[in-house]
Specification:
The protein is mainly alpha-helical. The chain is built from two helices and no strands.
Length: 101
């Protein structure tokens, strides 16, 4: 059985979703450009800074979905150093440290 993100429809949908998010980022960017350049120079308001944060998040998410797509859900091998299989439960026993104190 294949995973949901390995199907052709999911791959196409993720890429199209990334394109849609980038087009939304373009609309937000145009709105920011108009708001910033419509008034004389002044410190940025909290609303403008919030819109900038939304724009950055939209750009990151859109680029990730458009260029990586289903690869975002690919399993990444972990080195043995970070694997939970090597951890011995007695190494984390809090009571074992009382003997040394």
């Amino acid at each position: 059985m294949t995973r949901w993100h390995e199907t052709v429809a999911a791959r196409i949908g993720l890429r199209l979703g990334g394109l849609a998010i980038l087009s939304l980022a373009w609309v937000v960017g145009c709105d920011l450009y108009v708001r910033v350049h419509a008034h004389p120079p002044a410190p940025a308001s909290m609303a403008e800074l919030g819109r900038c944060a939304v724009l950055v998040l939209l750009l990151i998410a859109g680029n990730a979905l458009l260029f990586v797509g289903a690869g975002l859900w690919r399993a990444v091998p972990l080195p043995a150093k970070w694997s939970a299989a090597r951890i011995d439960p007695r190494d984390f026993d809090i009571l074992s440290f009382r003997d040394r104190a």
